[in-house]
Amino acid sequence: MSTAPGWLRGDSPGLTLARRSLALVILCLLLLPLADLEVTAAAPWAELWRMARGLAWPDWLALENPLHAIALTVSVALWGTFLGALLGFPLALLFPRSRTLRALCAFVRAIHELFWALLFLQVFGLSAVTALAALAIPYAGIFAKVYAEILELTPRAPSAALPAGVDRLSRFIYAELPLVWERLASYTRYRFECAMRASVLLGFVGLPTLGFYLESAFREGRFGEAGALLWIFYLMIATLHWWGHRRLLPLLLVAGLYWLGPWPQVDGALLWRFVSHDLWPASLLAGDPAGLVAWVRDMPDLLPAIGNTLLLALMGMVGSLVLALLLWPLASRHFGNRASRGLGRLTLVVARSTPELMLAFVLLLLLGPSMLPAWLALALHNGALIAFLVARHADGLTPGMSGLPASGRYAYELLPRLYPNLLALLCYRAEVILRETALLGMLGVATLGFYIDSSFEYLMFDQALFLLLITAGLNIAVDAAARRFRPREVPVDDPCSR
Amino acid sequence: MTLLHFDGDDLGHADRVVLPGLSLTLARGQQVALLGQSGAGKSTLLGAIRARLDPLAAWCPQSHGLVPLLSVYHNVYMGRLERQGALANLLNLLRPNREAWQAVESLCAELGLDGLLRRPVERLSGGQRQRVAIARALYQQREIFLGDEPLASVDPHQALRLLQRIQRQHATSVIALHQHRLALSHFDRVIGLRDGQVQLDAASRELTLADLDALYPDASTSAAATSA
């Protein structure tokens, strides 16, 4: 007779993953006392009630002609994605061959769209050029990576069947591209949805998209108007497959050119001065080492900021993990009835469609400035997104034993099959979560993003660039760590996870 | 006339030898049937023959190697992809070349694929795909035909017609197949593989169906097991 093994003892893959996740949760709990989680708002419930009322009874009449904001939001998202794909596709072909290119792509996508916008704002002002560059540049980096991953999975058989001597281009166009076209298109569609969110967010730095009106409505407590704007956004996302139909896209692209105008006069001398002079510390350009030391010493204290950034990212990861575990059954066919599933699916779609900055902004108004609203926003947005994908995966599974109670179905039949995938999705999101963490600094949470935002505010572009470089480096390091942590056996071929 | 000659060669993939020390000579003007269980090394042998004969041989692979999203016409056209420049191939994708279209159309009509030229291959049945793969190999218009089970998913009546069509165009062929009767009636020579060795290599008129059964050990052992 042998004794039964103790808690989490054993070397089955499920237990290994469970131990690994638990270690992550424990690490987060240990570090939690370091985070500032105070609720400082005087009457959060009263405020929440007013917001809920605004969302439930939107004040449509308060909107002053939202059509221009809607058209601009769509045009920016569409052209940003289009230009990003146009740049990213040729890069994807070179991606496996060039280490420099891979590093460059990692760098451009490590910086959030909004920070790119802040950078371009200095040169191109509040114009469409700023908006498009802010989207197209990081997206080119993302497309290059994801397209390259998709192309790598091209089935080889058709290409091997070709006669010898077929030129490279013909081989690619006939026997490779058609085999992955569907995946490339579906990822591009997903990225367009992300671009819609990013386009709304650009309103937070002053570009007149929907986010601009949303922010001022929320800030000034006009919740009825904010509710109406949010409804418009959700409706746009929900009907995306309809108005964003393949056949309508060329028409939308052409119309977008009109809505994006007026185009700014680009001052070449100013642009050059910004790139060659403003972005660099004066002492570096003058070749003054002592001045450079002083410049570094004048930096805000970066260690706490980096610590906060990493801590918030860890908290965001763990929060997303817990929420995803709790939420996915809501939208899965294995649980509940038709009504509960419909409601669950709607909740998840709303939570994942709401831009995370928007979510954090609202929570911040409710709870006061601390890490708490940022944490909740990260966990809600990413947890819902992962839960949605896991529920879709679960719907493809058939339980082996019928008639189990719900808890048995969850713990014995479904979760063991879904968990490796769930954890892998979470690790893919690590990069995104960290990028969002920095972004939340714009709302006053003391992460790196906070200092980047204030450097731009005080026109200290050299300092802003330096901080952006640090952020990007941090992102690349965290992505590498997450890749090691990720369960290796599961191929995550759902491109919508990134 | 000798076409190619293996002399104690080790054939296989990157690091795994499938056919060790293979010696075999193929001659022009012979129709050769290649028999053996799956896993016996037929595909490896055909791959090696293809590599040696490359510009002479038309190739019909086991997995068809078709592109599901492209139409029947484009899949067949791919047989001659190397004879046009990249630009012409690109244009043909947007607007089929008139002469190529007619050539492919008459070829497809012969194989019972008429009216399907515009249909994407993903919407075809298994037998239809098989015939598209054969059409592509015929469209290559090479001297020799190499086929890895090109008759696997068509009915017996069609298999005979397709085989006759292939052999009418090619005086020399090496075809892997499972239909023993066809191997004896329509080929000059039968090569039988078993466990990576050439077990049988003889003129088909000297062979009987019983000789061919010896290539399939499972069949004979399971028969022995049931009798015992």
From TrEMBL, chain B:
Molecular function GO terms recorded: ATP binding
Q: Which UniProt keywords apply?
A: ATP-binding, Nucleotide-binding, Transport
| GTP-binding keyword on record | no
Report domain ABC transporter positions: 4-220
Read off the PANTHER family from this record.
METAL TRANSPORT SYSTEM ATP-BINDING PROTEIN TM_0124-RELATED
This protein's name: ATP-binding cassette domain-containing protein
The record lists the organism as Salinicola endophyticus
